[in-house]
Amino acid sequence: MTTPWKQPIFASAVYYRDPLAALDWLEKAFGFKRQFVVYGPEDKVAHSEMRFEGASVMICGSWPGMPSTSPADLDGKNTQSVHVQLQSGIDAHCQRALAAGAKVVREIADQFYGDRVYVVSDPEGHLWSFGQTVRAVTREEAEQASGLKIDGWV
Length: 154
Fold this sequence. Notes:
Layout: E1 12-15, H1 19-30, E2 33-39, E3 45-52, E4 55-60, E5 81-86, H2 90-99, E6 103-110, E7 115-121, E8 127-133, H3 139-146
Parallel strand pairs: 1-4, 5-8
Antiparallel strand pairs: 2-3, 3-4, 6-7, 7-8
């Protein structure tokens, strides 16, 4: 199968009550770019993909046979979140998201493992975390700073 773009190895699908509004908001808040949009019955968005720094996320509406839904349908409960690792500009990215109406779940802060991270929720309650490595940390330094035992540190 041939596509006009390079497929990522892994991508999440995030389900929304109003996927078209989600596409607009994700562009405004996070700087994601629409790759394509598939319309189903009644011209409702059934599936779409967005890109950000070479990564892909699928933004979907309800689809027959798929038992997936928005946190807005589950009293705000989430069973997953999407994490995006930025190369630079995390503080400005956070301010952009907040200006677009993202709700703070975890304030931006430096972490024991060397990343600066913030977590927000979107208008339907999906959790989005963003991180940027701001300093190199050894496993030993991370263990000492956190009080945790860490396996598999590369």
